[in-house]
Amino acid sequence: MFEKNLTIGYLLDFYGELLSDRRRELMSLYYNEDYSLAEIADEVGISRQGVRDAIKRGEEELCNLEEKLGLAARFAELQALSDRLEAILASPDANGISPALRETLADLCERLK
Predict the structure, then answer these.
(1) Angle (nearest 5°) at CA 24 between 22 and 25
(2) How far apart are CA 35 and CA 85, in angstroms?
(3) I need a surface site. Which of 42, 51, 85, 107 has the fewest CB within 10 A?
(4) What's the pLDDT tens digit per position in 35-86?
(5) Sorting pLDDT into bands at 50, 70 and 90, what band is 1?
(6) CB-side exposure of 4: number of CA atoms within 13 Å?
C-alpha cells in the first residue's frame, strides 16, 4: 500500500521550491491537502499511476536533497537545543545564573527560534 510518510511532508516544506512546479503541485496536493491519488489524477488530468510515479520521484528527490544538504535535520537539532535552553532557563536551578548570563542565554534562545 502507498502510505503517506510525514517526514516527506516535512522535507517538502524545506525543499519544495527546488522541485519542478508540476511535481511540487502534485506532492502538495497529496501531503498538504490530503488528496487521494485518484482525486489528484482527476484534478490534474493524468492517470492515478502517473500521479503515484511523480510523487515517488519527488520523494526520492527530496530525500536526496536532505541527504546532501541536511537542512531539515539541522533545523530540528536547533529547535531541540532551543527547547532545552528554554527549559534550563525556566528551571529552579537557573536562579543561580547571573543576570548577564541569563540575558545572553535568553537572547541565544530567541535567535535559535
Answers:
(1) 65
(2) 39
(3) 107
(4) 999 999 999 999 999 999 999 999 999 999 999 999 999 999 988 988 888 8
(5) very low
(6) 16
Indicate the residue type of 110.
Answer: E
CATH of domain 6-69: 1.10.10.10
Q: How many CA atoms lie within 13 A of 72 on its CB side?
A: 18
Closest to 74 measured CA to CA, from 10, 26, 22: 10
SS3 of residue 91 by DSSP: coil
| Residue 73: partners with Cβ closer than 8 Å, 6 or more residues away | 66
Between CA 64 and CA 68 the distance in angstroms is: 6
pTM over 0.85: no
